[in-house]
Amino acid sequence: MKQPxxxxxxxxxxxxxxxxxxxxxxxxxxxxxTPIARNISADFDAAPSFGQRAADAVASFGGSWxxxxxxxxxxxxxxxxNAFLLMGRGATFDPYPYIxxxxxxxxLAAIQAPVILMSxxxxxxxxxxxxxxxxxVNLKAELEIMSLHEKIDLLREEQWKELLEIxxxxxxxxxxMIEKNSGPS
Length: 185
Fold this sequence. Notes:
The chain is mostly helical. It contains six helices and no strands.
């Protein structure tokens, strides 16, 4: 088994000590012949806090057609109820321009926006981890391919040497046969 320092200098052309942590990790995995792939989602979602789960749920619902439908239905019911009360009693609980409705919508937006941003930040962190992992996997694959090319080149070089040795032997045998046949007849 090779050492990570050998892998670094041979395949990356840099001393092991100068590599960043991801490259060192890749060099160690190559040296130990261990897989580097792992399930980032499982690692990331292992133990989200209550706040993180709530933010994800709010963002999931707030970005769905169900929320749009519920929002539109609430608006229609609010306006319809006010119109019905205006026609029936001549007074409403929230007269046009619906200041109370506007207040509720503003409060909803004020609460919903930061919660959605928290969920987006969490997703951004997950994406960043996935990108870093992809880089490590791709780097390891590239280095393994370089190593395989080197091995194949060495095998091909050995085969050429063996073929040349066989050809020399064949030429020696042919020369011997020609000398034997061209001798005194």
